[in-house]
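go over my protein:
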Amino acid sequence: KNEWLQNLGLDRSLFERYHEDAHMLDTQYRMHEGICAFPSVAFYKSRLKTWQGLKRLPSVLGHTGKESCPVIF
């Protein structure tokens, strides 16, 4: 590699440099916790959590009493 670039600290890509200083954001605020469970286990070693204050908006289709159901078709 070019010695001049190495002296400037540019011998590695931004991706390589940013990877070293990555931080896990462990709380998500949008998905139902039932939907969040899969990516949490599959990709984040069960560390991704759903914010406990997450409120489900009323259904625009008029479904009532289904607050525990993450998806209604």
